[in-house]
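ugh finaly. both done.
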Amino acid sequence: MVTKCLYQKTPTSIQAQIDSYRQKLKNNTNFIEITDLGSGSRVFKNNHRKISDIAKNAGVSKKYAQLLNRIVGYLDCKNILELGTSLGMGTFSILANHPKIKVTSIEGCSKTLAVAQEQLMNYNLQLNLVQGDFNKILPKVIDANTYDLVFFDGNHQKEATLIYFKQCLKAKHNNSVFIFDDIYWSEGMKEAWQEIKKHPEVTATVDLFQWGLVFFRTEQNKEHFKIRF
């Protein structure tokens, strides 16, 4: 995975698609009122924010957007759950050049989700965008569903992260992968990452510093890797 996925270069055509999506958001000078149900922002001082500023300072970075696209292709993901749609940059990064992948994405803020929905409508994608509090929505979304990949990018607090992790265990299969964003964001997130690594159902983890990847393959010996990325 390191040589064939992490260290591979994303094809130029896919880079261009992802960059184009982000640039459209950066060109959007409208203001929206954010409802933050997570850990808050270290950049913004209030909830009245310009869309272009959100695009510049929040959401998945260009480097990791490309990595996310490579991971879902390398692992041949078919069904994905995303916690934290924001403006849809991560969502689109998953689906760029993978239009047949089914993505369910949950977002707590109705205003940011509306922006994402409006922009994502321009593409022929299999999307289920859900607005609401993760605590209320997640149990319904994972009921009777299994996911090849779950991307946790919505609430960077220890307690919430561990709750959502344990809930999503019900929706994994042997080859599923969980991706946690900002595992070193705070002391609480560092502690959450350590607890996740120790969980008996986790067999391997990959620490990329920004992200933590979690695997559950029963045939895999328990190992933890740190990769310079």
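ok and the 2nd:
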Amino acid sequence: MSAPQYMQGRGFVVEVIRTPRIKSARLQVEDGAVAIIVPLALPSERIKKILNEKTRWIKEKLYLHQQAVPVSGKEFVSGEAFPYLGRNYRLKIEAGAFQPVKLKQGRLLVTLPKTGDTPQLVRSALIRWYRSQAQQRFAQKVERYAKIVGVKPAAVDIKTFKSRWGSCNVKGEILFHWKVILAPHRIVDYVVVHELCHLKHHDHSAAFWKSVERVIPDYLECKEWLKRVGAQFDV
């Protein structure tokens, strides 16, 4: 899969992901972010035509998402603080052609065109960045802790869950809520170990918690922290 590109739509930004694994274009709107997955050789003009034809559908999906998520306490303006791995970083918004969010000199830099939908564009850009960071960090941590736990997960992926931080299925695939990346490292480690231990124990039995405790001795504190603080994560 090649590195993503970006196209400006009418009131939204689209991530273009080229891959040899599909033969036709596929649109997706998740967490208020729009992406189009396309074959490697599909011309940019064809992609633009698809986006123009699907603009109404995309905007309807974005509207439904905005109605479904809780009202954020964030304003998405320069100077506002956003957490990442337990630390707060100030947002800096610059006008220009859309660019992916960068963590630069201790600030979360967002570059995008000025539009009436700027707060929503900033939010979707931040979520894209959080999800990308989560994908990388979780893959690294799973690789590290899988050896300690003594398991081999089939795959690691990032999802959006309504009421859980992670999931492990019968295929051995482990899924994590991207919002866990807002928490400190030790909390992220706990969530990773928790799901890895489910590859050995598919319940929350005493044996399961013993497996977790062997790797994360203070797991009870981590569990309580997530319950108390995690519910307040706001992006």
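summary for the 2nd one i guess: The radius of gyration is 19 Å.
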